[in-house]
């Protein structure tokens, strides 16, 4: 084997997911499950608090997707629809996993889940203020718009659950059909990649903390004025 070929096949662990991205992912999983459970148990106050926390996390992730670590940035993983379709055409082909971050199809799934989470949490925050008569905007929003927001929250929950199921099915499919373990890197942050692939740049944890504090402040303001 030539030296260049040996270097290309040699693998080493690479940190592909930073701590803030992984923490967001698993806290979101816990909060979505908690929101579902508290809704079924009619624990309204806790349901609202979980929704507000989830909204703060989503806002943080949107900002982290703009200025955070390389693999967390939208510009690094949002491919064209054509690229996503080309990727899906090889879904059942077993091949080495050399993706540093999200694959082209996975990037679109991330956008879908974030959009659904944002719609669900914002609509829930408005509805809580409307019922509790807390938000000044609740009284001036036309009834037709208020009804539309209510519908978004009611039916959007089922769309979100459907997207979550699709996401889980995709993880299982990649594991079975392609032999790619997408779960372990999101737990450990590490992935074995060829030595020729550079490790992605990581942003500061202080920046993540600052953005999270800013996201919390936004949610507090929305809870007061929405």
Automatic annotation (TrEMBL):
GO terms for biological process: respiratory electron transport chain. One of its GO terms (molecular function) is heme binding. InterPro entries: Cyt_b561_bac/Ni-Hgenase, Di-haem_cyt_TM, Hydrogenase_cytochrome. The chain crosses the membrane at residues 21-38, 108-127, 155-177, 205-225. Keywords: Cell membrane, Membrane, Transmembrane, Transmembrane helix. Residues 16-189 form the Cytochrome b561 bacterial/Ni-hydrogenase domain. One of its GO terms (cellular component) is plasma membrane. It is a multi-pass membrane protein. This is Hydrogenase. It comes from Paraburkholderia dinghuensis.
